[in-house]
Input
Amino acid sequence: MRVLLETPTCEFRSPVIICEVSTKIKASMNSTILPRVKVCCIASIAEAWLAIEHGASAIGLVSAMPSGPGPIPEPLIAEIANVVPPGVASFLLTCKQDVASIVEQQRRLGVNTIQICDRLEDGTYDELHVALPGVSIVQVIHVTGPESVSEAKSVAPHVDAILLDSGNQSLAVKELGGTGRTHDWSLSLQIRESIEVPLFLAGGLTPDNVVEAIQTVRPFGVDVCSGLRTDGNLDRQKLSSFFAAINEYQSSE
Output
């Protein structure tokens, strides 16, 4: 089973590290004292560096989506991914549901992590791993009810991480992220306790509620988009407040 760890004794899959470890260690790695922070919906090189300078472990680059904020042209995604420094993950958010299209998109854009925002329907995760060595695969689970727990448990053994969000795939126009809504964090906790890969928590996070989210779910990482934006732009003050809240929480533990 693969998990994301920071240890020199493991196989390197840039910019994260993958290990074969015991079930006991896997379970303990699902939460961390200080969760990683992924700043999503990055729209420019300047925004990428602003997030990284504040401490982001990852940035999210949104490709075409059926709805929601944040999509940018693929050439810009490639340009931003090319300047992300070692040690920072560049997540490509894709709505594609077949292995061939996902592989082609990654090869065009050069990101080091694929975030699959809808269900994979054509092909397998194993095929993705074989086709994209060195690229981490993160599957989004949209938490809509207890059935999401079962879905996460079935997918987790095949991916490098699970990301929980608040979209809705059953709508006529799918919501695959960027809703600004929270979901039932008690279900998120059930999922974290049921899987053996790192879990990222997204959906409506802000400087005002991120500590409560961390205390409730104890995720490996948190993921934020609309909660750090003003008039569509990444807000330096909100970004500072978000990281300050997390750091203050960590220092009080």
